[in-house]
Each structure stands twice: as C-alpha cells, then as structure tokens.
Design goal:
This protein has 492 residues and is α+β, with helices and mostly antiparallel strands. Helix content is 46%, strand content 9%. Strands 7-6-5-8-9 form a five-stranded mixed beta sheet. The chain has a two-stranded antiparallel ribbon with strand order 1-2.
C-alpha cells in the first residue's frame, strides 16, 4: 500500500495530460471538497484506491481537519496497514491480537520505541478509523473489547500530564547566547562557532520567550505584523494570529520593545544577505509564489497575485504554507515577506528550526562547566520558551496580587477569594487568555511550578533581553496583558 495526499497547487501547476488539464483537475478537487493534505491510499500493484481508507480520508477532509493533521493521520494508518500486510491481513481483518502486537511493537520492540504521548495519538487515530468502519457498515463491531474504565487494547498504559519544562534566566541566556548565538560561556568570542545566522536564531528565541507564541506562530510571522518593512518602524507590536494558531483559535499577540529590538538587529545585519542572494532564484519562481503588491496595515490585508489570479488575504488568516511563498518587491528584487529566512530566501521549515536547536544543544553540552548553568536531562525544545513565558508572567502577576505575602497557605486562601470575586483580573485566567488555551484547566498545570519559582525571581524579569539594566520586560508584558483585560492588576 502506498500513501499520497491531495495537493491542488501541485496538480494545477504540473499535471500535463491531454485528457484533463491541471486547472480542470484542481477544479474537480475543489468541487469534491477534498482539501490539501487529504490522504489517498493506493494498492501497490493495481494503484487503485484502497477502501475504506480513502473514504476515511475524505471524511477527515469534510470534517475540516488541518492539512498537517490529515497527513500525520494518513502516515499512522499506512504504518498500521503495512504491519497488517506483514501478518497476512488487511486493515479491516485486524483482530484484538493484531492490535496488541502492533502496540507492543511500537512501544517496546522497535529500535526506538515511541513514548506514551506519541502512542496515545496513534491509538486515538486507530480507534477513530475503526469507529468510522463500524459507522459505515464495513465492520459489525470494533476489533477491541472495552474493559474496565473504558480501557481497551489500544489504551496507553500510563496517562501523562503536561510536560512543562521551563528555563531560568541563567539557562535562557546560556541557551540563547552560547547555544544559538555562538558566544563562549564568558560572553567572549567562540572561534569554534560555525553557525551562519546567530542573530536570526537569537531573535527567534527572544520573540518566543517574550510573546508566548507557539513555534508555528513565531516562526511564520510576517514583517507587516511586527510593523516592519520599508518605511516602517515600530517600538512594539500588537497583532492577531488565527490560521497559524492551534485549532485555528484566534487570539491577540503582544511583542514588547526589547524583543522588537532583537528582531531589528537580525533584520539589519543578516536578513539582507539572505534576500540579496535569493533574489534571482525567487524571480525565476515568481509564478509559483504569492507576489504581494500592496499591504494595507490598517485593515490587516495583503493584496497580490497567486496562480495568476488577483487575491486579497487577511494576514491573520494566511496559513503557514502560503506564508512560506509570500513575497514582495524589495530592495534587491523579490524577497520573502516572512521575518525569518534561510539560505533559499524563504522561511525555514520545521526540520530546519529543529536542526538549529539541536546544534545549539550540542554546543551547550560541549562548553558546559562548573561555571555554566546546569543543563536538564532532556534537550531543550522551542516549546519550552512558551512554558517559560507562561510561568514568568503568571508568577509576576501573582506577586503583584500578593505583594510580600510569604505564607503559601495564605496565598492560596487569597487566590480562592480572588478567583470568586475578581474573575476578570485573576492572573491564571489572564495568562490562559494570552496563551490561547481552550480551557483554563490547561493553564492549571502551571500552578504547581509557581511557588517553586518565587524565590528565583525577586529581581523579576529584568534583563531577559538586551541590557540587564534595561526595562523589566515581563512587567511591560503584564501591563499590556492587563490593559487588554480592561484594567490594571490590583485595581479594586
């Protein structure tokens, strides 16, 4: 069995068939409601669709699942289908024994077993497929029995909470300046550093830790969203994300002044080299790009040509894939509208940012000594910067509310009263809204970490970016967060 996925853009541009043009095929895909990323399963020998897997893929497209989600789900079913083929069965003939064997293979026996979080996702996809097969009449019942407390053969053995990992100020500076920036632990020049874009990587980290954005949000941000570009200069930025946000949930993003200065430094020192080197290459590919002719900052819209058609998009609604090919006429010719670029002149993808982070970790480990911050057992993730933002802001807001209250019992008592009487100004709910959590319950997981951090941040949030003598960046963020909530912390 082979797996493919729908890509209307590729079909439109590259299908060359006398019976059906690329434009006609793309139009048929649109009429059928098949979104990009819809998985298509084909038989190895006949290259005919494999049912009901293809029908299941269509059902995901009609449910408007995200493109990346459908691709991931398709790969999971392909993996299970190949496992079944190795046992002489197809997917619909799976028994409970097959599922147990597959689970043990993935979680115990293969060269690199997956963890409980990865298996939880995989098991939910399998369960979802078998529920679809029963609903559509392909099976009489699911192949796994339901045991006590709703568990079955696919259920993970353990249930994990959120893996909240955060950085202290010293750890963050070591990660940013030594790991990403290529400095020595003593802030001096590290002559062994071979990275090509330290300012870009440092700016990405600063933007993440001071905005709380997820990786896909800050890595795909556009220049106009930060108030940057020809003739524009903003001290701070306030914009909204939607298409790049998890589940497409819209929320506001605030970027403080010091993070903006870090991005501006990258834009002055490194970004022009990327745009100049890639201008000719982008010009040759202009038919495959979204070429912006006008940016309307007041309405948040961009006007341009995509696939030969004049289009208008709201910036917050531009998905990551389209952001990657969005360009405009710059100083050297066509240049990407995205803030962060790589050697090809377009924004780096997930694998590239992962490579930058892994290289930074190797440098941090190699240069670690008694004078450097202690490194954790697990390698840092970009998402740890979002956790750090949440904990820093939550702790700061709690300190503002509690004042110098030293007794944790009294603090908890005041929190209960505060939550019931002042929902709008509760620190936890403010942070939950700034992070875009679907439910405050998700943010509750951070509470167990705040008391552990209180003693570390008496000099709160000063010097996280730029000059240690500068403004208290998180105090600036907190002030804006509370302003958005219509009243400063402590009012009333």
């Amino acid at each position: 069995m082979q797996l493919y996925s729908v890509d209307a853009t590729v079909v439109r541009r590259h299908l060359d068939n006398p019976a059906l043009s690329g434009a006609e095929a793309a139009e048929w895909l649109r009429r059928l409601g098949l979104a990009d990323g819809t998985p298509i399963f084909l038989d190895d020998e006949t290259m005919l669709p494999v049912e009901p897997l293809c029908a299941w893929g269509r059902s995901m497209s009609y449910a408007e699942l995200a493109e990346g989600t459908m691709r991931d789900y398709g790969r999971i079913m392909l993996r299970f289908g190949r496992h079944q083929a190795g046992r002489g069965r197809d997917v619909l003939a799976a028994t409970e024994a097959d599922l147990v064997a597959y689970k043990r293979l993935r979680t115990q026996q293969q060269k690199m077993p997956v963890g409980s979080a990865a298996w939880s996702k995989e098991s939910s996809v399998l369960d979802r497929f078998f529920a679809f097969a029963v609903e559509q009449g392909h099976l009489e019942r699911r192949p796994m029995r339901v045991a006590a407390r709703g568990r079955n053969a696919l259920s993970p053995r353990t249930r994990r909470g959120m893996d909240i990992r955060h950085l202290s100020l010293e750890q963050y500076r070591y990660f940013r300046d030594v790991g990403l920036g290529g400095q020595g632990p003593d802030s001096g020049l590290n002559r062994s550093f071979r990275g090509s874009s330290p300012h870009r990587d440092r700016a990405g980290a600063d933007l993440a830790v001071c905005s709380g954005m997820r990786w896909q949000e800050w890595a795909t941000v556009l220049l106009p969203e930060l108030g940057m570009g020809p003739g524009a200069s903003a001290e701070e930025a306030d914009f909204r994300v939607q298409a790049c946000a998890k589940y497409g949930k819209e929320r506001g993003i605030f970027v403080p002044e010091q993070a903006m200065r870090s991005v501006e430094t990258y834009c002055l020192l490194e970004r022009p080299d990327f745009t100049a080197a890639a201008a000719q290459s982008l010009e040759r590919r202009h038919r495959d790009l979204f070429v912006v002719s006008r940016v309307d900052v007041d309405t948040g819209r961009v006007h341009g040509v995509l696939d030969g058609v004049q289009r208008v998009f709201s910036m917050k609604a531009i998905p990551p894939r389209l952001r990657r090919i969005t360009v405009w006429e710059g100083e050297f010719g066509l240049e990407a509208l995205a803030v962060f670029l790589c050697r090809g002149g377009l924004m780096p993808g997930a694998d590239s940012w992962k490579r930058y982070r892994h290289a930074a970790w190797r440098r941090m480990v190699a240069l670690q000594s008694a004078t450097t911050p202690r490194l954790p057992a697990k390698r840092w993730r970009w998402h740890d910067l979002r956790h750090t933002y949440a904990l820093q802001l939550l702790t700061y807001l709690e300190q503002q509310m509690d004042g110098a209250e030293p007794d944790p019992v009294a603090r908890r008592r005041r929190h209960r009263s505060y939550l019931s009487g002042h929902i709008r100004y509760n620190p936890l709910l403010i942070v939950s809204r700034r992070l875009g959590h679907s439910s405050p319950e998700t943010t509750y997981a951070y509470l167990e970490y705040t008391d552990d951090l209180l003693h570390e941040f008496d000099a709160a949030f000063e010097g996280w970016l730029g000059d240690p003598e500068g403004e208290a960046t998180y105090a600036q963020i907190a002030a804006r967060a509370c302003g958005v909530e219509s009243s400063p912390v402590g009012a009333g």
